[in-house]
Amino acid sequence: MIFSMTGYAVVSRDIGRAVMQLELRSVNSRYLDLAFRIVEDLRFAEPLLREHINASVSRGKLECRLSLQAATSGAPELKLNTAMLDQLSVAQARVQARFPQAAALSVGEVLRWPGMLAEDAAAQDTLNAELQALAKQALEELRDTRAREGEKLAAMLRDRVAQMRVLVERATPLIPAAVGEYRERLTQRLREAVATLDEDRIRQEVTVFAQRVDVAEELTRLVAHMDEVERVINKGGAVGKRLDFLMQELNREANTLASKSVSTELTGISVDIKVLIEQMREQVQNLE
Predict the structure, then answer these.
(1) Is the pLDDT reported for residue 196 higher than 60?
(2) What is the C-alpha to C-alpha distance for residues 240 and 59, in angstroms, rounded to an integer?
């Protein structure tokens, strides 16, 4: 199985007084490029999310959004951490004794103090486990969407390879035919120019021409590269970079084939092959 770098997943979990939602979007990129959009209350989760993503995804520009929304059910009863409140009061008194102009803490600042609400302190014990489960679920969903897209791309690549094989089969007999036609034309020209034909000269000219237009090696390498493309696709995994290299090699052979063309039919075949390679190359850019 091969994977596209394009994918999307969104999952959420009810953690009591709030709903935690994780959204993942990925597009193609040369390397793994991560961007995080995390609410301040969950900022501590970034290292955990980064670790899970690095273990699951190898390439792609991936945007990770983690949000926290208040539950629609009735507001829970707030319980203050009285021990922490006493410590905060003592600390504030000491600071103001040293710096009389220092502003006192507001009620909002006190309530937002980490661990001040007893419910928050209790929830913190289970929040990491919830985040672990949320990240696993989201990455599985993202992997599934990238796999489905990857299968579509694999089918497209196999189809283009099959079309290229047909074109190579058409091109293979064209060169011997072209050499034979050249020999006939050369013989006719020499007959018209001289009374006695120099058979050795004709053979030399034909040999030079045959060597110049011989594309057997190019066709053989095209077939070998196509075999490798199919092998890599069937092997699966992170194949994007390998296939991108093979597209360059296929294009190199197609260009040589075009430069050696001695007929409009062979030129047309080489152009068709290059079009198929370009279609493949564009899609390979989306593979992990």
Answers:
(1) no
(2) 9
